[in-house]
Amino acid sequence: MERIGILGGTFDPPHLGHLLIAEEVRLAMELNEVWFIPTYTPPHKDAAKTKAIDRIKMLQLATESNPFFKVNTIEIERSGKSYTLDTMKYLKKEFPKKDFYFIIGADMVEYLPHWHKVDELLSLVNFVGVKRSGYQVDTEYPVTEVDIPMIDISSSMLRNWLRSKRSVNYIVPDSVISYIEENRLYEN
Question: CB–CB of 106/137 below 8 Å?
């Protein structure tokens, strides 16, 4: 059975931290692929700052050099609030011969008790937690911990940098920086 990692998020913008997490978990968990699933509207955050089509394009550019990375737009196509349970029910139905590993940061591991129908979700997916500065991967839920090199960056930090014209070189893939500049994203 194929083992598929799922990395969800707004990816607004995608950055090297996302790519590093995906690759380190792929290797540690011996995953066949990692599917990046951009959310339309996350249930625990405000709406994304850029249009879905721009976030999809940036994610495609960010992942195109890795043959093990795929972009899946199921949550964008569904629109509205995106609950992981709905996504995983759909994926399990569409791909019954795949085992799914949902990759989350330590901040989300701490938040698991508040996830929508988390107990039902646990029957559909295996959780993989990665460390994040300021958080622990301690939980009563079954979460496999994967150590990754610590890179303390966030999309919100990068949006602030971009608005203030600060360079994001070496943190955001060059192709994504070009797309951001060409489309004048994050200027306001």
Answer: yes
Unique residue bearing structure tokens 């992981």: 84
Q: Is the peptide bond before 13 cis (omega within 30 degrees of 0)?
A: yes
pLDDT at residue 132, rounded to an integer: 65
Could you say which architecture CATH assigns to the domain 2-152? Answer: 3-Layer(aba) Sandwich (3.40)
Query: pTM for the full model?
Result: 0.89
Map out the domains of the chain as residue ranges: 2-152
Residue 98, token pair as written in the block = 């795949």
Alpha carbon of residue 101 to chain centroid: 12
